[in-house]
User: Fold these one by one.
Assistant:
Number 1:
Amino acid sequence: MVDERELFLYGLGLLGLLGSVASVIVGIFGGIFIALSAFLVYKASCYISTLSIKVGNLLSRYKCKRTSWYSNLQYGEVWVPNNVDQSLERLLERILTEYIDSWYSDLTPDAEFLQEIRICIRDITQNIIRRLSRVDLTEVILSDVVPVAVQHIDSYMWTLHHTKQDDTGKRKDLFQSYTNFLGKKIHIALTSRDAELEYLEELSKRIIPLVTKKTTSNSDLVNGLAVGLLSKTVLFNLLDTTCNPRTINKLLSLWFVPEPVKEYPSCKLPPVILLFRFIHKNPQNTRSTFHIDLSQILGDQDLLCHFLKYLKVRGGLGVNLLQFCLSVEDFNKRILVEKLSDNELKSLQAEVKKMYKEYMEENSNQFIHFQTDIVDSIWNTIQADYKDVVKLRTTPALFRAYEQAYNNLADNYCPGFHLSKQYLSHVFGSPFTDVTPQPYPKSTGQERPNKAKYSRIKNGLLGNPLEGSPEPSLNSGFNASSSSLQTSEDGDYLSTDPETRDLNAWRVEITRLETRISNGKSYFVFVLQVQRIDVASRLDGQDLQWSVARQYHEFYSLQSALVQYHGIFEDAKLPSRAKIFGGRGLDVLQSKLEPFQDYIRKLLQKDSLKKSDLLFTFLTSQSEFTEAASRLGLTRMIKSVPKKLTKERGQFLQPFIKSFTEASIHTDRSNIGSDCPDSVINKQDLYNTIYKDNFAQFFPFRNSSLGPSNVYTPDGIYDIVLYVCVRLLKVSPAITRMLHCIKWLVEGSFNHIVQYFISKKLNSLLNNGRVAFIIDVVEEAIFSHGEELSQAETEFLAERTLQLFRGYLPRILETLAPEGYHEGTQKIHSLLQEPRLNKQLVYTVLESVLPRIFPELKGS
């Protein structure tokens, strides 16, 4: 007899067996169903992907933020963070000092021209920032920069496909294959280094009229200076430095380093008007005879009438500023009365309300954009009791508003008024064209004016001295005088006669480093102890010893000047200047004491420099060498010994005169500067760079002779992801097919997500602290040249950058594409090590981005 317990156990076992069989059957059919469903979905997706059906952006409600790297832009005034303004000011001040003031100070001490240049530079910078504020940086990166970069990578990969490697792994015919593949699509600027300069100059000529005022763009002088500074000084040097593989590796190493990205704190100071200090920190001590301050204009009824006519001729711009200044002056005269009646106080409050309504309400026709705290303070005053209007005597709100309007008129409108027809007619009377000449009667005995007499007057007015007038004196730092001794600024008696001077008998020692303070900023100077034994002492030896303080950059200014006049001294060279990312702290400068001292001593041993004015000025003048050397003008050289000019200029004098004569006679620009070593950019130096002569040896470029077609254009970020998976990483076909099949469904949303996160990242990175740092890096790129690295150091830096790049990428890429991961990253890295190919990418991106900033260039 079977036990009930055993029967129960048998039943449970049978039930479990039946459940297992059922689950297996269900699992098989379920698996078949799931596989069949996935297969059907896959086939459906493949079919839909062949059609023009696309699902739009499902995340459109999450709008991407525009990059707000500028501070504020309202009502014609640009307000930027304080640190950004300081960085811009340093950059522009250095450009102005080294490329304009260096030669202009030779002509005249009048600073009015430099002030006009400052105003022009400020206007250009404001116009560029206004244009940049209309551009979304994220959209530019995704729509213009990234697609061009992918095209560049694709062209390079096809070039590698057609290029053979030698035994060492190098590709000697890389550039030949590259030009054969791209053909005429190689940028025109890369046909040669000369063509690159001409392209940048032509580009500058088209941009300058777009960012300058109409009255300024009509000036050939301003256009010439602006084109020269923008093309040869800024763009040319900046592009050379940017495309240098060493710079690229340095930047990528800083970005890919495992440590967190360096934080640049935002400036907590309130924003300032763009380049306000740049305009006002250099007041003009000497002004034109006909210059009149705005205060004089406001105080003279006749001048005020002419000034108002001038503003109306210009379209009425600035009339509201003038009316506001006059209203405030009238208000101040009334409020400064000690005892005011209630009616007078009410009248003053009504006048303040009227000024507020006319000039501070945004919907007013005469609106002036004042700072928010000024407007709020005046609003609180007019909302209080009428007796509180007297508080405007002590509160600075109304005064600050007046100062802002006054400075705007003085900076932007008065300079044009001084050259206007209204002002000149006031000063000189009616123009000659308005005066009808009276004919001399033939029958009378009235004598005609003597033509010779008028000729003498004309010559005198145009600058030639009239008969009997004294000869103008020459204001030079080291003027030749009747005495062979001249007192220096520190009391020493120095011989200025080059015939009695022998610098070979001078002794120099750099004794120490000292700290100096100027304009609230500290800096280091090298103290040079100088002793001479070429002449006899007249003051018990005190006149034969002195000390001179020189800054770091003054030594390089001396070297540049000597190279310009005497050529390169192979056995006397300064060490390379600091790197872009290097420093000039005490430890760095301390290491330069001995090299700088050896350099000066070797120069003093040169027979060709024994009577050099440049070296003499460097060792004697207490002013900054760049300023003092500029005073060694051609006038003083010619006025002294005739042979002196030839000795200082050396073997380069005759080619300079020949080139200058040809440039003055011939209009063909190809002759200008062809034989002149003193040009801004020496042609020989253009070819002795990592860029050689660009692709000149392959020019003229023909149609592409290698296939396949090189017109690949990605359509969005999702297309770029597919390209990277297929061409670079060589991901398995199953994954790429899946990505291609779901493209119609997720492409729009995926592109939006990428744009959203990039814009968010840019907003967090591009704070005003980092923007100020970028401006400082641009300054170093323009004016400083990093020291040359050896081949081993260059290869080490490149290899380190590659390893950091691979460590920065997500590990999942290496898992999905174990074979193509290392090869793809190696190709991208090797592409960045070719400077001429980097130039091709940069110029292509430049032509893609510029029409967004300057839409006027699209039709040109």
Number 2:
Amino acid sequence: MAEVMEIDDDTLSPPPKNNKGKSIITSPPAHTKATPWVEKFRPQSLADVAAHRDIIDTIDRLTSENKMPHLLLYGPPGTGKTSTILAVARKLFGSQMHNMVLELNASDERGIDVVRQQIQDFASTQSFSFGAKASVKLVLLDEADAMTKDAQFALRRVIERYTKSTRFALICNNVNKIIPALQSRCTRFRFAPLDAVHVNERLKHVITAEGLDVTEDGLTALVRLSNGDMRKSLNILQSTHMASQQITEEAVYLCTGNPLPKDIEQISYWLLNEPFSDSFQKISHMKATKGLALVDIVREVTMFVFRIKMPSDVRIYLYLTSKF
């Protein structure tokens, strides 16, 4: 759900040349067969974003009414944060995106010099006007939680100074690493992990577009392994397709290196019904022959145990002990 903190009341030129390899955002290039599906099927408009309709509708309304505030989008990876703000930029600027949007991604420096030089230079230039409506510029800071504290304090001052001509969109995974002074100047939106239904729908769209042969259990495995991360599910789908003509449950698990559900059931049976020495030996043998990671086995076994019917007090005890 959207949590609105403070929205600036102020009403909403070509940028300077980059001097450190920073890029002004441009229109997406023509897709080729080599294009990763994460980029090939990235939503181009707000209507195409897979989920979070409450957040999308709120941002859409604010931009339509020319009341766009500074934004802080936070949440786990692959939940649509970057896709949402890029769709907003396309809606606001259209073909003029390359003039009106400055994007600093994860590979850029995040020190105080970048804020004082590049961001401030871009924000201080005169905005274009499209028809009768003056338009603000947009500065997109992806992975803003990687910025130093000094850079964040400097950015706070830049935001205050250039609010009339520029809007800032901060994207991060950990909102606790953003200083309170920046948070209070932005409207915050939390992007939760995607529901399985939304991941399933988007995967079916990609499967149809690419003409893939995916079984029902293969699709279920893709959704399950994604854990609400749309980017992860598309990467798994594409890598599995490159390794196997038919995408089945076994093909998906083999491609990702995760233990199959039947293997987890077998391991759980050994742990519950056989002596420790015997079960340890069998699990070690399976781990070595199938190339499984111990952390994956432990995680999947834990999830399997929690799905077993048991008294509520036992379930609570297991949950608490699994945290330590």
